[in-house]
């Protein structure tokens, strides 16, 4: 059997998040996918069937009553313990705020290297694990490899489609000892989750508003269009800095990186820092009243027009289709 590749499972409310399927698909390109579940006792058994369907042959259960009461330290401890048991070819985590911090801490513990925000993985001819990164707003592709220890790779959500071969997942317990003295405890979560909309970083449709939206009240136009697609709402930094929408929704270099199937930009000019966070979206639609706006350079479909005129018509057309 080929060398295991560990994947940190993202889960909520008893269900595996879509990014985990994407990571297991990438893991299968490198070796034998193995999932690491951190949670309360019983979580791994609950998720094992779904993880098997997504391609995990082994599920490492890192479970304790305290596992969900701390921030990221249980995940670091769990991956360290699983790595000691499995001796993996690589460890993959989602490139979220938490995932990136977990990668860094884990690399210190395992004395190995991190590659951040990868969009693909492969094996070089000599068998070394190679991660592909899209940098400088997608203008360049970098192939990076770790030269010391087990490569720890954080992967951008929506980089690949999940299509791993189903496996029969065997659950195996690993230790998850968390030193409370070295851990931050979750007291409350801020900001509160936003209704029924999907999480920005993993949504398959994102509708973003820029400064052109003009006010916080006007953002209902952006929300309405997002809702007809069942998508997430994003915002440019100018919109966020102007107080139109909360910072947690900022897309771009200093916000969230998104790579949805469909990205719709309303009143966004397409500055390089914004593009850096959405350029790998599969289909990009831009609505802007300035025909020379840079966003049209990367849009698959561009509409020169007033967003307050065009966006409600698009929403209506989708609703009645
Ligand atoms: P503008 O550039 O002002 O564009 C507004 C657009 O709306 C214009 O193209 C205009 O034609 C159009 N418009 C106006 N009214 C309408 C209408 N009624 N209908 C249709 N179109 C209309 N930016 C980010 O987004 N994300 C980041 O993460 C980010 N990080 C940054 C990091 C650094 C270090 C720096 C220096 C900048 C960063 N920025 C970031 C800011 C970035 O440079 C731009 O200033 C910002 O993206 C511009 O936002 P915008 O497109 O909404 O606004």
From TrEMBL:
Residues that bind FAD: 211, 236-237, 250-254, 267-274, 288
GO biological process: fatty acid beta-oxidation using acyl-CoA dehydrogenase
Alphabetic keyword roster: Electron transport, FAD, Flavoprotein, Transport
Domain of life: Bacteria
Cofactor(s) needed: FAD
Cofactor note: Binds 1 FAD per dimer.
Electron transfer flavoprotein alpha/beta-subunit N-terminal domain span: 5-189
Entry-linked SUPFAM superfamilies: Adenine nucleotide alpha hydrolases-like (SSF52402), DHS-like NAD/FAD-binding domain (SSF52467)
A Gene Ontology molecular function term of the record: electron transfer activity
Annotated signal peptide: none
Functional note: The electron transfer flavoprotein serves as a specific electron acceptor for other dehydrogenases. It transfers the electrons to the main respiratory chain via ETF-ubiquinone oxidoreductase (ETF dehydrogenase).
Subunit: Heterodimer of an alpha and a beta subunit.
Family to which the UniProt record says this protein belongs: Belongs to the ETF alpha-subunit/FixB family.
Protein name: Electron transfer flavoprotein subunit alpha/FixB family protein
Organism of derivation: Nakamurella flavida
């Amino acid at each position: 059997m080929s060398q295991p590749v560990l994947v940190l499972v993202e889960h909520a409310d008893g269900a595996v998040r879509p990014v985990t399927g994407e990571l297991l698909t990438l893991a299968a390109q490198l070796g034998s996918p193995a999932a690491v579940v951190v949670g309360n006792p019983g979580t791994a058994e609950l998720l094992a069937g779904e993880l098997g369907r997504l391609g995990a042959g082994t599920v490492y259960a890192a479970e304790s009553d305290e596992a969900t009461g701390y921030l990221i330290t249980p995940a670091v401890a769990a991956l360290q313990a699983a790595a000691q048991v499995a001796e993996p070819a690589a460890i993959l985590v989602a490139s979220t705020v938490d995932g990136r911090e977990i990668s860094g801490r884990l690399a210190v513990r395992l004395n190995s290297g991190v590659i951040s925000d990868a969009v693909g993985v492969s094996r070089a001819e000599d068998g070394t694990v190679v991660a592909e990164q899209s940098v400088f707003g997608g203008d360049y592709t970098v192939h990076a490899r770790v030269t010391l220890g087990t490569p720890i790779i954080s992967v951008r959500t929506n980089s690949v489609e999940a299509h791993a071969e189903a496996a029969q997942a065997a659950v195996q317990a690993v230790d998850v000892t968390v030193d409370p003295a070295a851990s931050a405890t979750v007291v409350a979560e801020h900001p509160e989750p936003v209704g029924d909309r999907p999480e920005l970083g993993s949504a398959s449709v994102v509708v973003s508003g820029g400064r052109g939206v003009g006010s916080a009240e006007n953002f209902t136009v952006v929300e309405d269009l997002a809702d007809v697609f069942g998508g997430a709402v994003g915002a440019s930094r100018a919109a966020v800095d102007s107080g139109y929408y909360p910072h947690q929704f900022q897309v771009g270099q200093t916000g969230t990186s998104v790579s949805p199937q469909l990205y719709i930009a309303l009143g966004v000019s397409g500055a390089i820092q914004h593009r850096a966070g959405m350029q790998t979206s599969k289909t990009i639609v831009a609505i802007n009243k300035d025909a020379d706006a840079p966003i049209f350079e990367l849009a698959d479909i561009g509409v020169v027009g007033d967003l307050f005129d065009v966006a409600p018509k698009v929403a209506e057309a989708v609703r009645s289709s």
